[in-house]
């Protein structure tokens, strides 16, 4: 039933004096005195909710922080790949300015990878090879970063 016809019906009953209009009384009083059992229970539930939210935030941070820590191998690999890309750009810029590739990477920058190893740089005719030996520090292994 739509609320408007119901309201019209109620008003017509009140106008015919069949029903006496009364003031609406709230079921729960607007001001609950402090210290009552209901207030204490409500505050315990709000603290419990807050505790649950803090626990979820803590669990999220604990799971995300290792991704960005400096000790994480994946972060080191990303840094090394970024360094290789930057060095390739600088080597090509050097070739553009000087007409040939540099004979050694030290002519551009003295740089080491995140594991402390020097980047491997070799010129091969009209091209060059540049890579990081990765965490094991050995050439030609699966963890090399090109």
Textual characterization of the structure:
By secondary structure, the chain is mainly alpha-helical. Among the domains are: 36-68; 73-131. The chain has helices at 3-15, 37-68, 73-98, and strands spanning 120-124, 127-131. It has a two-stranded antiparallel sheet with strand order 1-2. A hairpin with a 2-residue loop joins strand 1 and strand 2 (127-131). The two termini are 73 Å apart.
Kindly summarize this structure in a few lines.
This protein is mostly helical and 146 residues long.
Based on secondary structure, the structural category is mainly alpha
Record the strand order, biggest sheet. 1-2
> Whole-number average pLDDT?
77
The major beta sheet can be summarized as: 2 strands, antiparallel
Poorly predicted ranges (pLDDT <50, ≥5 residues)? none
Shape estimate: elongated
Residues in β-strands, percent: 5-15%
Rg: 37 Å
The total strand number stands at 2
Oligomer: single chain
User: Helix amount, in percent?
Assistant: 40-55%
How do the SSEs run, as a string of H and E?
Answer: HHHEE
Keywords summarizing the entry:
single chain, mainly alpha, 2 strands
What is the topological layout?
Blueprint (H helix, E strand, L loop, with lengths): L2 H13 L21 H32 L4 H26 L21 E5 L2 E5 L15
Antiparallel strand pairs: 1-2
């Amino acid at each position: 039933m739509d609320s408007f016809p119901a309201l019209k019906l109620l008003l017509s009953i009140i106008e015919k004096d069949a029903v006496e209009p009364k003031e609406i009384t709230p079921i729960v009083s607007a001001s609950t005195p402090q210290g009552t059992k209901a207030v204490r229970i409500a505050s315990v539930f709000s603290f419990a909710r807050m505790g649950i939210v803090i626990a979820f935030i803590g669990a999220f941070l604990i799971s995300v922080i290792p991704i960005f820590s400096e000790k994480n191998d994946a972060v080191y690999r990303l840094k090394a790949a970024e360094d290789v890309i930057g060095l390739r750009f600088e080597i090509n810029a050097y070739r553009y300015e000087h007409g040939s590739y540099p004979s050694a990477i030290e002519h551009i920058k003295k740089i080491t990878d995140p594991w402390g190893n020097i980047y491997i740089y070799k010129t091969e005719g009209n091209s060059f090879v540049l890579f990081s030996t990765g965490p094991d520090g050995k050439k030609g292994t699966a963890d090399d970063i090109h």
